[in-house]
Amino acid sequence: MGRSFGSCRAHHSTLLRSTEPGISRGVPSTVLFAILVISYRSSCYNHPLMFSARKLARLLLLIALLVPSGVLLSLDQSDDSSKDGSSKSHAPQKQHDGSDLDDATVISALQQALEISSAKAIAQTGKHDGFLQNEAIRILLPPKLQAIGKSMRMLGRGDEVDELEIGMNRAAEDATQQAKPIFLSALKNLVFRDPQLVLTEGDTAATEYFRRWSSNDLEATFAPIVHHSMERLGVIKQYKHVLKNDPGGNAIASEFDLDKYEVEQTLDGIFDVIAAEEGNIRRDPPAQSTDLLKEVFGRK
Whole-prediction pTM value? Predict the structure, then answer.
């Protein structure tokens, strides 16, 4: 049989006072409320099952007083956060550099940076003296011809060697004037396997990736253009003349491919300038000439 109403009310007041230490320790109100309800109901109804509930309530109150309040409070707050659906476990993971840029945006920015850099590089190297007066990319006499060149200079025929070297640079400049559509076409076919890595790997990472991806195709497409430039400017004739006037010339002619050397040197020079322009875009805000470039490279 249950207690009288007055007895239960008096016991309720006692329970309230008993929770004051818990309140002062910062025990969450939800924990204290549960303890009060269980204690009150078990004390006002003399039911065999309620006896164990009464003991449980005392145990919960003891735990609430002994366990550090910060632990309980953190549990209470985590419960609230789960109700709000703001669980951290469902937060989107950031990419390689902590950026929230998606791959499509990064790819567009990398392609745009390469397009702009390629156009500038071709304009710089395709003009008169673009190769010849740029010490970083100037095409020198091939290693296999350096011994011949040295002996010819000793014989007072150094001007013939110089003419060959100058002609090779002029041919590179001439061929580069036709390179823009070839490079832009290669860029359209460029596939970035890991754009986030290319974005964060270094100042010239996109150029190096483009170079590795496209070199073979560019060489094949560019070779006839370079050969035509060398032929039109007399470079091939000069080369044959130099070999003809040296005892070891015939052996070199059978081993050395002038066209291949010229194509490789020309593409190397163009790519070197593209890399420099890419670095400018990454580092220099004024070089970030579009909103997309500012969005992607201006964040770093």
Answer: 0.67
